[in-house]
Amino acid sequence: MPELPEVEALAQFLREHAVGAVVGRVDVAALSAVKTFEPAVTALSGRDVTGAGRWGKFLGMQAGELWLITHLSRAGWLRWIDEPSATPPKPGKGPLALRVHFFTPEGATPAFDLTEAGTKKRLAVYVVTDPKAVPGIARLGPDALEVGEPEFAEILRGASQRIKTAIVDQSLLAGIGNAYSDEILHTARISPFANTKTLSEEKVSELYGAMRTVLTDAVTRSVGQDAARLKGEKRSGMRVHARTGETCPVCGDTVREVSYAERSFQYCPTCQTGGKILADRRMSRLLK
Fold first, then answer.
1. Are 16 and 72 a contacting pair, CB within 8 Å?
2. Of the four, 107, 133, 205, 245, which is 20 to 30 A from 236 by CA?
3. What pTM value is reported for the model?
């Protein structure tokens, strides 16, 4: 799933490649992805692209007084195409959900595709005059890169739950997902199962610093990358996430995994749990 660093990089990519262009034809290949109908997506056509933005994990492109907002969900992505086909795509065929064509001042006619792999289609597209009209944006907590340490500590004090759950709750803190939460907790040397109520002030401060460091470093690596390379850049920067069975680069222990429902997370026992191996989440307890 694209998280704060990748979505920030995609917003910057749109600022550099789409701002100044005029929106051409908009092709809808998956009608189920479009969550708003007034204004219609066709209302974007003919408008100048004037900006791009990010709200948590939501990505937006501004065209005049309208915003095209998308949430890429778990398997969505934005693909930039320098020479797109002039033939409209067939609805329901392949991963394509939406294609937006452009006319640039230089006379080029690029486009971007919003795509989604897999059979569970969760990618969402909205056309609104105010980004806060998107329900998911209206519910967001403060941005993870904008929240101050006192407010961060207050958020955790008010959330009596496992820390892994708390920092991926978008209503508490916007922008962090499964991957970067693994990296943040590893950097802060905190167990994913630790309760927010039991964290000391020192640990909360360390967690805040780890969050800032991990996200800032990831944004630095991501911004400026071609959109097609962002997924690989994200993977290359991970120390524990999606590295089950590999060696922890900090202590040399084996990276472990906890699986539950459709997801999993990774951690280092030596760095984070005092050497304890966490039981599979489906067992709902720690191994003694």
1. no
2. 205
3. 0.93
